[in-house]
Amino acid sequence: MTNAFLFYTTENYIKCLFFEKCVMAKKSKYEKNNTITIILVILIVIAIFLSYRNSYASKEFKHVSDSITGFKNNSVIIIEEPNIFNLEIKSNGKIYEKNKDYNISFDGRFVIKKTSNSSIPNSKFVISYDVPEDKELAALVNKEKITFTELSSISAQVDPYSTIPTAVLLKQIINEKLVTQEIANSKISVPESEINATIQELTKNLPQDINLKDLLASQNITMKEFREEIENKIAFNMFLERKIPELKVNDTEIIEFYNQNKESLTQPEQVRASHILICFQGKERCETNLTKEGAQEIVKNILEQIKKGADFRQLALQYSTDPSVVVNGGDLGYFSKGQMVKEFEEVAFTMQPGQVSMPIETIFGYHIIYVTDKKEAFLPELDQIKSSIKNLLFTQKIRDNREKVDTYLNNLTEKAEIKISELLN
Q1: How far apart are CA 198 and CA 193, in angstroms?
Q2: Which of 185, 333, 355, 403 is deepest in the core (most CB within 10 A)?
Q3: DSSP string computed for 350-385
Q4: Rounded CA gap, 66 and 68, in Å?
Q5: CA distance readout (Å), 420 to 188, 214, 374
Q6: Residue 254 in contact with residue 389, Cβ under 8 Å?
């Protein structure tokens, strides 16, 4: 199974490895990265990857090679195929360069057009390409398949605001698969104690009313599968530490970090709240055509339903325009001061658990806030956050040794057999 943890980040927990930006770091200003949200999203991605586990190409490509006498129809060649790989234009032993000698576009078929300074001759040349029998095939990594469905599913979870180009996302997935394949061929043994400690740490930081087993069951994930994913994540770090010794994190570093950063590790006063967002025209990240007046009518209707005892989560799922509602049901988790937009924060911290706010307008639209809990400031014990600190230090070492990590990944790429659809190239 692929290592879903690579795609997520949180202040004290899981850190991104390959991505310079991660979806959870790109969430809107009124959202908070919290353990329950992270676990929920991880579970969804685990479910995605479970459906593609051991997905290897069993079918071959059909190779097509045509001799063509010059470009026709305004210097355009049409390939009536929904998906092709390894496009090549060659003449007298010379292979012409895409984007320099020709461009490719797709409108249900491939359209190849000469550039203005193209050196492709008007005389005879050969165009060749491979047509996959599996039209869904996006890429092959040492014969392990990545389909367009898989890619779009990952993209929807990792990058709901579409801030990461598809080509960049695919490169990170390929890198991750290459390392995972290397791990499968190595003899990495993860201590049970480390797996248990990581799960225990995540469990301890869940809200009191959330049970890990119930959370897993809600996403049709078994505890065995979840443990495997934790094991994969730890194995991934262990493997890179073997390949790049500078990445290794020892207990002395963890203790030193804890003692030197008690102030920043102290959990400030926090509020846990859910919200329903109704955005309207002119607001940030709003993709509806709703007017401000229309939004006010919807908010009024929601508040009337709340007064009659309607379930807040169900209302959020029904009405909220916040993209993350499908993952968290409107629950923003715990957040401290300075993590939300000012108007939202000022109201949330004056409320008591069980209270529902009147509509608050921010740069994102109208919010209805439901406060569910409050926490006083406290400093966690080292054992509670040890694996989190280790992950953080590991990530910092990845950043500090980026050149060595990139060299290792580039070496894997050079040795690998990688094919990418021309739809993505």
Answers
A1: 9
A2: 333
A3: T--TT-BPPPEEETTEEEEEEEEEEE--BPPPHHHH
A4: 6
A5: 30, 39, 50
A6: yes
Nearest-10 crossing angle of helices 223-243, 402-415: 100
Q: Using DSSP, state whether 368 is helix, strand or coil.
A: strand
- How far is Cα 166 from Cα 168, in angstroms, rounded to an integer? 5
Residue 261: both structure tokens together: 């950063």
CB 175 within 8 A of CB 6: no
Residue type, 100: K
Q: Say which DSSP state 21 is in.
A: S
3-state secondary structure 74-134: CCEEEECCCCCEEEEEEECCEECCECCCEEEEECCCEEEEECCCCCCCCCEEEEEEEEECC
Helix (H, G, I), strand (E, B) or coil at 9: coil
Q: For residues 84 and 284, give the distance between their C-alpha atoms in angstroms, rounded to a whole number.
A: 38
Retrieve residue 20's tokens: 């310079």
Q: Are the C-beta atoms of 103 and 134 separated by less than 8 Å? A: no
Amino acid at 167: A
Question: For 241-300, what is each residue's pLDDT tens digit?
Answer: 999 999 999 999 999 999 999 998 888 899 999 999 999 999 998 989 999 999 999 999
Residue type, 364: F
C-alpha dihedral over 320, 322, 325, 331, to 10 degrees? -90
pLDDT, tens digit (0-9, with 9 covering 90-100), for 108-141: 999 999 888 888 887 788 999 999 999 999 999 9
Could you give the CA distance from residue 363 to residue 276 in angstroms, rounded to a whole number?
14
Residue-wise burial string across 187-224, b where 16 or more C-beta atoms lie within 10 A, e elsewhere = ebebeeeebebbbebbeebbbeeeebeebbeebebeee
Q: Note whether 328 and 215 are within 8 A (CB).
A: no
Q: CB neighbours of 342 closer than 8 A, spacing ≥ 6?
A: none
Return d(Cα 201, Cα 205) in angstroms, integer: 6
Residue of 348, 381, 376 whose CA lies nearest to 362: 348
